[in-house]
Amino acid sequence: MLQDRRNQIVDMITKQRTIKNTQLMDEFGISIETVRRDLEYLEQQGILRRVYGGAVLNTTMGGEPEYASRAQDHADEKSAIAAAAAAMISPRDSVFLGVGTTVQAMVPFMQNLSEVTVFTNALRTAVALSDYPGCSVILPGGQLRAKELTLSEFPSEECISNFNIDKAFIGTGGLTEAGITDYHIGEARLHRQLIKNARQSIALVDSSKFGNRAMTNLCTLEEIDVVITDSNAPKQLVAALRQAGVQVIIAQL
């Protein structure tokens, strides 16, 4: 019985990549203490890593999951966050749209914007925006990441350093009280440059990213201006953000 339950938990987290304590309590009819013992055991086996309120799949070498897999995860939360983010864009704004599935989810909500200049290093985003006459798209150049279809490294950083952008929308790999993290070193450097140059830096963080710590440090909480998340975000970390002076927008599902 015990091993069967733990095997099922492994199957669940392998498919979902994240899992909540409450989900396991409801699924198996067990107490929070039993959930913690199961997750502690599976963490010792190297299968998962416990985070606030649940656990995440343990990826080797801090590796980032495939784009197609990420695009399907937490789709409702990402769509709500993306809609709230796109609503912050005003006519004649200059904006940067970073990489990541949550940022790309902003595209459908931008079709009626006018006179907006969009910088992006995400080729999927650039192609999607090319259908919108109100968006002028600028690609910064750089080294191509084939699977992600993104551009980064020195040429991107050099290009972006020449522009003062109104709003930078940035995807993340994780958020803890220590700060915001990401998976790719080159893209993290580019995002750090944007945080310096942009009038307003906005991180899009669905609730599954809270408590995660990816390989590369991006910035401290105090360095970001706005975090847009969903209503499942842990209250403790939302409070830590606000205490750091960050505006937190809760997108309603």
> What's the helix count?
10
Number of strands: 15
**What is Rg?**
19 Å
N-to-C span:
36 Å
Mean pLDDT: 89
Order of helices and strands: HEHHEEHHEHEHEEEHEEEHEEEHE
Structural class: alpha/beta
Shape: elongated
State the low-pLDDT regions, or none: none
Strand content: 15-25%
Q: Could you give the order of strands across the largest sheet?
A: 6-5-4-9-12-14-15
Q: Please give the share of residues in helix.
A: 25-40%
Characterization of this structure:
This protein has 253 residues and is an alpha/beta fold. Helix content is 37%, strand content 24%. It has helices spanning 2-16, 21-28, 32-44, 67-72, 75-86, 101-104, 123-129, 154-160, 185-197, 235-243, and strands at residues 18-20, 48-51, 54-57, 94-97, 116-120, 135-138, 143-145, 150-152, 167-171, 174-176, 179-182, 200-204, 216-219, 226-230, 247-251. The strands form four sheets. Strands 6-5-4-9-12-14-15 form a seven-stranded parallel sheet, sandwiched between helices. Strands 1-3-2 form a three-stranded antiparallel sheet. α6 links the parallel β4 and β5 (116-120). α8 (154-160) packs parallel to α9. The mean pLDDT is 89.
